Structure formats: C-alpha cells, structure tokens
Amino acid sequence: MKRTILSTCAALLFMVATAQENSYIVKTRGAKKSVLTESSRAQGIVPEEETATDFISQNFKFYSLCDWQEGMKFMVIPEKYDLVVKTFADAATGKEVSSMPLKYKIMIYKGHTESSDGHSRINFECQDNGRMYYYEIPSGSFEDYCYTKTGVPTLAYLGDVDIAREKLMGKTLYTKTAFYRIDTDYDSDGYQDVVVDKDMEVKVTAVGVGTRSYPVKIIVEDKDGNEFFQNVAISKTNCGMRDDEFIMDEAKYLFGNSFELVDDIMAINSYNYKTFIGKIIHTKFPTKLLNETTKKMQSIPRMIEYQIEGMNPHKNDDKFTLKLKNTILGTYFYVDMVLDEHRAENQEEYFGYVFALGPGKKIQTSEGSRAMIRNGHVAIGFSEDEVMLAAGEPDKVEHRENGLYTWTFNRSNNKLLFVDFDGSGVVTKTRTGDAPKTGSAKARSRSRVGKTSKSNWKSHKGTPL
Fold it and tell me: How far apart are CA 451 and CA 368, in angstroms?
C-alpha cells in the first residue's frame, strides 16, 4: 500500500516538474503554486455567434485523421475518464500505459500500421522520452475509423497552438462573451470562473495548450492589467466534437464566439482600411477635428493637408475613427467618419465629401507661429493662412476703409473672436466679445462667407468624437 502511495506521489511530482518546464503550459498571473482540485464549470448560457471565418479559414486547416501527416505534434492532456481507461500502449512491450505519467508529453505522429492480429494501430514517438507508443483502434480498419470525429483520445493538436502564437501574440482582440477563467493553481489545472464585459478591448499576452477539445489557451489582458483566459477550438483537428455540439455553454469555446480580432473587423467591411494608411489627403470643405494637443474640437479650413495615420473601425456602427497628422504642424487630429456615402447621416461625416486624396495648400509658417497654432491661438503678425490654421475659416468678413478688414469667428464658449488685418493681410489686433443672443435679427441675418451650399443635407457643423 505504501509503495502504491509513494509511486503515485512520485508520478504527480514528475508531472508537475514536466509542466513547469513545458513552454506550452501558460498561466494567468496570480496562480498559486499548489495542487488543488478543479472547480466547476461556468453555468452561464452563451448564444452561438458568427465565427471569425476569415481569420480561421486563412490560417487554420482542419486535418481529419485520414489527412494526418507524419511529424504532426500533439500533447497528452488526459481528462478524468482517460486516467481510468488507458489510451496508449508501449510499442516495445505491447502493454497499456497509464495516461498519468504521459500527461503534458508531446507525441509525434508516425503513421499507422496493422498488427499481427489484424488490429489497426496509430503510432507515435514521444518527444520527451524517445519511446514509441501506439493507440489501437477498437474495431474496424483505419480507413473506416479515420473519417469519424473520434480521433485519438487525450491528444491536443499543437499545430493550432503554434499558429495561434504566431498570429495572435500581442494582438488586440475584443471579448465576445462574458464568461472566462483565471488560473488558481500554478502546478495543476485549477481555475476560477470570472465574468467580464462583452465587446471589451483586450491584448493577447500568452498562448499555450488548453484541453483536447479546446486545445488553444489564449490569455488576454484588459486595460486595467487584469488577465483571464479561454480555451478555444480553432481548426477542430482531433477535437473529438462535432460542429453541432458547440451549442449552449459550449458555444463560447469556439474562437469566434470568445474573441474577435481587430483585423477581422476590418475584413468584414467592403473596404480595406490598410490601403489608406500613409496616404496624403486634404480638406475639400471646412470641418471640425479633435485636436490631440488641446483636447478640443478645432475648426479646419479648406485645402489643409494631412497624412492618414490610422483608421480604427467601430464595433457597433459603420463608422471608423480617423487619425490624421497635419503635415505642416505635426499635430494629430481625430474624427469619426464613414466610407459609404449611403450610410452617412449627414454630409460632414462622409469621408469622400470632406476629404480628397492628394496634397493641399502649401502654407509657410514660422516655428514660433506653429507653437501657437497647435494650441488654437491667433497672434499679431499672423498671415491669413496662419489664422485659418489656428481658427479655421471666418464666419464673417467685414471690409473697412484703407484696405483694412476684420474676420469674425464664432467660438464654442459663446464668444466672438475678432481678428483685424492691415491692407497687406497681416494681423494687427485680436479681441473677443460676447456673441449676440440666439434668435436676434442680427444672428438670423448673419451669413457665413465662403461656405458652399450643402444641398438638402444638414448644415455643416463638423462631427464630434
């Protein structure tokens, strides 16, 4: 009896040591180095959602047992049932071996053969100990068996894990369910169920092996530094589950029902956003953009040139957030846009209306002027172009004697900005005043100089973020 207990303890210690040295075994932060019993599964019901077919089909191929190629790698991940019913036999002795000492061992597929008594065997070489093992098909020929979903028990396909590491490490994903897990034990499979927000942006911090049915363990981190994971099926190679079994609580274990890849969101649209990155564009009409420096909406005149730095599509509508770099000032601006004119609620949020490809007007500024312009300030000595860079196009132009004239701007704080120019177009004075009360005759009669008719669209006010 004592010998049996000692043998079991030794096997457990060996298994723990093997797991710690195996790069495929990954854990969320906070997992304790102790062996505890596995907790219960989540009880929530998650409706089946559309899978990320583009990402899956382009990177992960399903291999039926009939299509397995020598050299394919698997890891032994036995479940409780597999500890009772032995899966493998030692090829040298022909004796069945327990799955316990084989746990976390990597098996390399070595083809299939027929035994002397007519049974089909699926052969493996253990990468960790160099020994040969085989799984004997219960009945029938290899050809009959290989077309079933049954496959070889206990084996998690590592090909999916390797590809997922290459494609997903460091990537931004969105959560597609509320139910995930955190590791509680560093030395075993203990976990705790956690609930998180859906459609939350997370970053992949680790990819390892999960279970036989859900072989890819994806650990992600939210913006607050909290880590959690999901074991997911991707190609379903040797998964042992049919497609119609991924329902109810099991639905979230499909990759596309737990995570959505940002690149896949882009692919859903009929436009390839990536082709726009780095392009030079200019404003065709006055608009408003969010200035990253001032954190305020800034009026932008026509013919101002930008380089597209980013186009981040939204999750819940047809818009994307456009990140622009002013080629003169180097300042960054943001605005929400749509690429499809028919999906735009008004003209100012349609990209093709506000912007055009190609360079804009070349404006000369001094280094001192640029610092003020970045913050939306107008100073004495500015040219007309510099004033428009800082404040946009004027709402009113008033000409006076001797070639003097004044530009008036409606400010967001219900104030007016008056900018006086001399006859050569240089600012001589700036001042502010109160805007007239809404509804007054003066306000109703005021017209915006230089504005183009918007046809039957709403008046141009810019699109706040």
Answer: 30
